[in-house]
Design a protein that fits this description.
This protein has about 130 residues and is mainly alpha-helical. About 80% of the residues lie in helices and about 0% in strands. The protein has one domain. It is elongated.
């Protein structure tokens, strides 16, 4: 009986990054499609399109706004979710690295990568409350 050769670390990390990008782009495309299905005037009217990208309309600048918009199937909220998933992809890569290093029993890299993950999460938490 032959043992399977372990998958290289770079391959596993590549899978995490590719999956994150594919999922986030899919969510963004769905959100864009819903936006233009619900508001076909965005295609033909510059004034209507300006309302879509108006920075003064701050409906999606909080988690509650994004979540509420997603529950209403608002395309802009779904696009925002896709962007948040894209931002979270490198963080997931760091988290996956911790498990990979744990499997390899590499304590130094587990410690370093855990510290990096904690710094990332702390910066997101502090940035969200700034």
């Amino acid at each position: 009986m032959s043992e399977r050769e372990p998958v290289p670390v770079e391959t596993l990390i590549g899978w995490v990054l590719r999956a994150g990008v594919v999922i986030s782009v899919t969510v963004i495309v769905i959100g864009l499609a819903l936006t233009f299905i619900h508001h076909p005037e965005y295609v033909s009217s510059k004034d209507a399109l300006r309302q879509l990208i108006d920075p003064e309309r701050r409906q999606l600048d909080s988690r509650a706004g994004v979540w509420g918009g997603m529950l209403q199937l608002r395309g802009q909220a779904i696009v925002m979710l896709g962007l948040l998933l894209l931002i979270a992809t490198p963080v997931m890569r760091v988290a996956a690295s911790i498990f990979i290093f744990a499997r390899e029993r590499d304590r130094l890299y587990i410690a370093i990568t855990t510290l990096v993950l904690l710094l990332l999460l702390t910066s997101f938490f502090l940035g969200a409350h700034a």
